[in-house]
Amino acid sequence: MKLTTSQALVRWILAQRTELFDGTHAPLFPGVFAIFGHGNVLGLGNALEEVRDRLPVWRGQNEQGMALAAVGIGKATHRRQVGVATSSIGPGALNMVTAAGVAHANRLPLLLLPGDTFTGRAPDPVLQQVEHFHDPTATVNDAFRAVSRYFDRVTRPEQLLSTLPQVARVLTDPADCGPVTLALPQDVQAESYDFPESLFREVVHRPLRPRPDVRALAEAAETIRAASRPLLVLGGGVRYSGAAGRALRFAEQHGLPVVETTAGRTLVPHGHPLHAGPLGITGSTSANVLAAEADVVIAAGTRLQDFTTASWTVFSPDVRLVSLNAARFDAVKHGSSALVADADEGLRELTDVLGAWRAPASWTARAETERTKWDAHITSLRAPSSGLPTYAQVVGVVNDVSGPADYVMTASGGLPGELIGGWRATGVSTMDVEYGFSCMGYELAGAWGAAIAHREGVVTTLLGDGSYLMLNSELFSAAFAGHGFVAVVCDNDGYAVIHRLQTGQGGAGFNNLYPDCATSHAEPPRTDFAAHAAALGCAVFPADSLGDLEGAYRKAREAAVAERRPAVVVVRTHPSAWTEAGAWWEVGVPEVSHRQEIASARDEVLEGKARQVRYLG
C-alpha cells in the first residue's frame, strides 16, 4: 500500500486493539490530542483528517496540557489504553517534555508525536530550529530522550516497520511501560513508501502475566514463613495487573495487615479488618506504626519511593523485604528477596506455596485496631469548625458525597497528603494522585483525560489556586469538546504547602504565600477564580463557607454530567491546617545559615539520617 509515513502511522494506530479487564476489546489508542502547527499540520494533520470518523482528535490549548490529558487516559484505564499527543516543532514539542516526565516517573503509557526539522536540511535553519554548532543531527526533540522509555527519530518511511513493534511493546509491557516519543521530521511525514498490508492487520494486545521463578518463589516463601509480624504493601503494579481482589484474598488467607502506597490507594475497601491505611509521609500513623514493627515486608507492585518509606526511616532496621514486581529493576532494590512476576500471578503462586501458613492472630488484629484510631483522628479533622474550611474538611465533603463509580484526583501542593491520608475508598482503584512527578497543572489536564476515559461515575479533581493559575487552559478544551468533570479549587493565597516546608525547616516566609511576595501595590489584585472559570466555558459554583460546600459540590456534579462541561467549585481555604502522619522526610537544609532556626532544622536532619537504613538483604 503506497502511503505517506503519516498515513501509515495513523493506520497502524487504528489497527491496535486492547483487551480490557472484563475481556472485551477496545482501541488501544482511543484518541489523539493535537495542536497543529509548522511541522505537523500538513503531514500528520492531513493523515488524521482522513480518518476523523474513526479516530477522535481533540484540540488542546497548550501542548503540555493536552499531553497531560493523554497521561490521564493511561492512568484512568489502568494502563489498558494509551493517550496520543502531537505537536509542531520547536516550542510546541518542548512543551510536551514535562508530560513525558510525568508518564516516565509514574510508569504510565503515553505516545508523543512531535514534529521535527527537515532531514534534508535544504531550508536550514528552518523556522523554530535550534542549531547546534557541532552536531547538526541534534534538535530540540533530543530533550525527550531523558524522559522517554523509548525514543526514535523517523528519518525514513520504512523505518516504521522496525520501530512500531517496539512502540507497542513498551506501551503494553508491564515491566517496561512508559512514554514513547517518535520524532517526525516534517519532510519525512510527507514521503511515501510501499508498506506491506500486514502492518495494518488488527492486533489485540493482551496483558502479559509473567510467572515467578520457582527458586525465587521458594526463597520468598521461606522468608515470609519465618515472619512473626509480616506486612503487605500494595502499590500501583497491583492496580495495573487488576490484582486487587487477588491481593485481598492473599492477605485474608495468611492474616496479613495491608497498607497502600500512593499509586496503590483505594485497592482495599476502607473498612476491611486487614486494612491498616496508607503508608508513609502523606499516609497514616496506623500504617506507619505497623511498618515500624514489621519484621518482613512484602512489597507488591511498588518501587518504594521516598514518600512511601519516609526517606527509608519508616521500617525497622532489621526488616527483611520481599519485592514482587513485574520489573526486575524495581524488584532487586534495597536488597530485597526479588520475585519478578505479574502481581496477580505472583500472589496466586505465592499463596499456593505458603499453603495454610498464617501470621499470628494478635498481629493480624493490629491492622483494624490501629486504623480505627486513625479513622477517629480523620473524623475529628473533618468536623465543622469556625473560620476558613481546611483541606481535610473539603476532602471530607467530597468523600461523603462520592459513590463507588466515582473517580477522584489531585497532584501537587497539600492536597495529595489530604487525599492519600484522609480519603476513605468508595470503590476499587478510584483514585489518581500523581505523586511520582507531582506536576502542578496535571489536576485539570489529567482530569480532562480521565473524563474521556470514564464512562460511569463523576471525575472530581481537587487543586489549589497555584496549580489552577499554572495550567488552566484545558478547562476550555474540555468544555469545548464536551467532557464533564468537577474541579474543586481551594484558594489559600499562594503556594501554602511549600511555605509550610520553608518555614517548618527554619526558613523565613518568602515568595510562596502572596503576602511574602514582591509587589509595588499596597493592596495587590486577587484572582477571581469563579469569573475566570466561567469565561473558559465552565459551570461555576462558589462556596463561601464549609456549610455551603456540600450543596455547591452536589450541584457541580449534576452540571458536569447534564451539561457535559467542567463544573468548578471555588472555596477559600485555611493556609496552614494539615493532616499529619508523623513521618520524617529528608530535605536539603543548609549546613550554614544566618538563621538559628535553620541551624536547628539541620540538626533534626542529621538525627533523621541517623535513623535512615540502607538495606543490603
TrEMBL record:
InterPro entries per UniProt: DHS-like_NAD/FAD-binding_dom, Myo_inos_IolD, THDP-binding, Thiamin_PyroP_enz_cen_dom, Thiamin_PyroP_enz_TPP-bd_dom, TPP_enz, TPP_enzyme_TPP-bd
Listed GO CC annotations: acetolactate synthase complex
Domain of life, source organism: Bacteria
Thiamine pyrophosphate enzyme N-terminal TPP-binding domain location: 40-128
Keywords from the named record: Hydrolase, Thiamine pyrophosphate
Limits of the Thiamine pyrophosphate enzyme central domain: 217-350
Biological process terms in GO annotation: inositol catabolic process; isoleucine biosynthetic process; L-valine biosynthetic process
Entry keyword annotation includes Cell membrane: no
Thiamine pyrophosphate enzyme TPP-binding domain mapped to chain residues: 431-571
GO MF: acetolactate synthase activity; flavin adenine dinucleotide binding; hydrolase activity, acting on acid carbon-carbon bonds, in ketonic substances; magnesium ion binding; thiamine pyrophosphate binding
Pfam families documented for this protein: TPP_enzyme_C, TPP_enzyme_M, TPP_enzyme_N
Homology family: Belongs to the TPP enzyme family.
Name under which the protein is recorded: 3D-(3,5/4)-trihydroxycyclohexane-1,2-dione acylhydrolase (Decyclizing)
Species name: Lentzea fradiae
